[in-house]
Amino acid sequence: MTTVSRLPIALALVACLLPTGLAADQDEGPYDLIIRGGRVVDGTGNPWRFADVAIRGDRVAVVGRIPDDTPSARTIDATGLVVAPGFIDIHSHSDRVLFESGAAESKIRQGVTTDILGEHTSGGPNVEPVEETIAGEPVRIASMGDYLSAVERSGIAINVASYAGLGNIWGGVMGASFDRPTESQFQAMEELLDRAMADGALGLSTMIMHPQSLGVTVDDLARLCGVVARHGGIYSSHIRTEGEGVMEAIAEAIAVGELAGVPVEIIHLKIADQSLWGRMDEIVATIDAARARGVDVQANVYPYTRGNNDLVSIIPPWAHEGGRDALLSRLADPEARERMKVDILAGLPGWYNHYLAVGGDWSRMLISAKLTPEHKRFEGKTMDVVLAGLAAGQDPSPDPLDLMFDFLRAEGGSIGTIYAHHTEEDMNLALVQPWCSIGSDGSALAIDGPLRRGHPHPRNFGTFPRVLGHYVRERQLLGLEEAIRKMTSQNAAKAGLLDRGLLRPGAFADVTVFDPETVIDRSTYLEPFQYSEGITHVVVNGTLVLDDGRSTGARPGRALRRER
Q: What is the 3-class SS of 257-289, one letter each residue?
């Protein structure tokens, strides 16, 4: 297990002041790998420069001019290419799929070398231990430490780090109940979170729009984040609503950080309700004002205008209490259905209603789930097509909401759905803010094998190359150096992974090499199973996992723990 450490300030300053090539004069090889002649973008945001990069073991040994006759086990000619730190995905959902395949194909082909996991639900802690299979053997996972050890032992191509999820902490103590916790229950949550932080969790991550979390207050979160503060961690929040009420939800996340004295990371910042489109400047002003008064609040975005959730998110929160079986019973109950219809069409205070967010337009909901044989024909179709198909032959045509209720019941109460709910202009304004970095909100999937599943969002395959190809090269919305900073050192600093995210001697050798003229995403909403192009080489902890665009099969990834 790797422990994430911070370089002493004095050492870091000395490293920054070393003249170009000094490290090469003092360290003459031999090396395991030299990447020669590329444009080095070191992750700091500084301008690129021509330099060679030498790697020995799992560390960068030299960034500078290296004599041609220097011995090395392998040399890569990076002429015409960019050499950057490996990309750090600050918002990923690969928690479980890495046990199925540690190859992380869709991640390494984007240049990702570290995945940050655990949004709201994390691999640990688990009050009721879960089992995973590693090398054919069952492994019991109860704590965050168990999870990190297990995922590393399973063999992974990329590094992983994780938040502790509020779903594990709150749900672990409260079960499926929506009741307020007693004092003893709250203390049990604090103890559970404290153990997770001691095991190396980065902080606490929440999805406050989750039905059970709607009753969680700012004071509750600040109290839990007091535990996080003692361990030097971060509060990462999928805010209470991204639609109507988004301004208040942003203020709430800021208030938690201000009360608890912890950094705040707002997950995939957006305005996901057409009635509020065009008001991102107000959110930017709110965050800037908080930072001006000393609150460390930042955010991330993915470079798409559609978000992935579940069709069941249209169902009002009260119908979810008691868990999946209780929900399915309500979906079959005529009285409950009529109550749900009223709430869906009119909304409820404090609830992010996905139906109203897209203006009640079924064509802006794309089914992304793997469906049962009965409904397999609807995979990759929009809900207007689904509803028309379900209504075919019925006269009179049923209420679309009744058809949706039946569809959900038949699919077990969960259907992955992509919602077209925010705008390019708002997303672009967020993207260019200096405190806004890049995260995919995706998972480590593949174009074949068991991880080719459902009809996923293209961000699973294309997030980072899309930024480099579309927003840097084609639209010039971002400069190359700034884009790479948002993918590397900024995410490392937020998460406390301060020995990663920069190309400098002594740093871990996580490196991505790409062609700035060809790098681009290929995955689309209709044809998602396509790898990106232009990422040529990826190095994780000194080992090539992508070599000239081909996966090597190596599994050098590690589980990273935040050190207090």
A: HHHHCCCEEECCCCCCCHHHCCCHHHHHHHHHH
